[in-house]
Amino acid sequence: MMHREQLPRASTRGNDESRPFIELMYSTGWNSIQAGYPPKMLQEVMGNASITTTLDLYGHLYPGDMDRYADRLDDAAADAGKAKIRPDDGEDTQGTT
Predict the structure, then answer these.
(1) Which residue in 7, 56, 73, 94 has the most C-beta neighbors within 10 A?
(2) What is the DSSP-derived secondary structure letter of residue 48?
(3) pLDDT tens per residue across span 3-41
């Protein structure tokens, strides 16, 4: 697998010369996903500054996985909602009144 530092620089003109580079980047992302890279690892490999950028570009390639991640986040949010971080204001937690 090539790392970002090993890839050629893209042309800033957006002409046909940059197309092979864009295709190389996209296929690198696709192959990484097929190899089982989670989104956060793909972000690092592709050199994206934000996980949002990575998911905007490659999220559709994680169709089943994204549903699983969403379910896990829902479960975590539900568990966090059940947890009591602080006792109610009316409760005496120190044993003194």
Answers:
(1) 7
(2) -
(3) 555 555 554 555 566 778 888 888 999 999 989 899 999
Quickly count: other Cβ atoms within 10 Å of residue 43's Cβ: 20
Tell me what percent of the chain is helix, strand and coil, each rounded to the nearest 5. 65, 0, 35
Instruction: Supply 56's token pair.
Output: 């905007």
Closest CA to 39 of 23, 55, 61: 55
The CA distance from 22 to 38, in Å, is: 21
Tokens describing residue 77: 């949010």
Number of domains in the chain: 1
Query: Contact, 23 vs 33, CB < 8 A?
Result: no
* Domain span holding position 47: 16-82
Tokens 């002409």 locate to 15
